[in-house]
Amino acid sequence: MPSRVRVGGVILNVPGSEPASPICSAKGCRADAVWVLAWNNPKLHTPDRRKTWLACEEHREYLSKFLGVRGFLKDVVPLEDWDSQEPLERQEPPQSPEA
């Protein structure tokens, strides 16, 4: 059975010497993640901060509802699209016009 390793806030499957693959964040699930659920808790995080959970097809709706009823869910994006985007925390703030 593969071991689990946390890398940069993402839990990865590490099956021996094979490349690591992201797995679902649902408790006890070891399925490959295919969705990124971007969220933030407004009581703890600034409005532009995004935390992420990963979800497999089976747990996408459950995890989305869990975050949604609390008002935390901000976006649900396919993992392949998320990988190609620059994370929100790393984006540069808009530049003010020079006077």
From TrEMBL:
<protein>
    <recommendedName>
        <fullName>Acetone carboxylase</fullName>
    </recommendedName>
</protein>
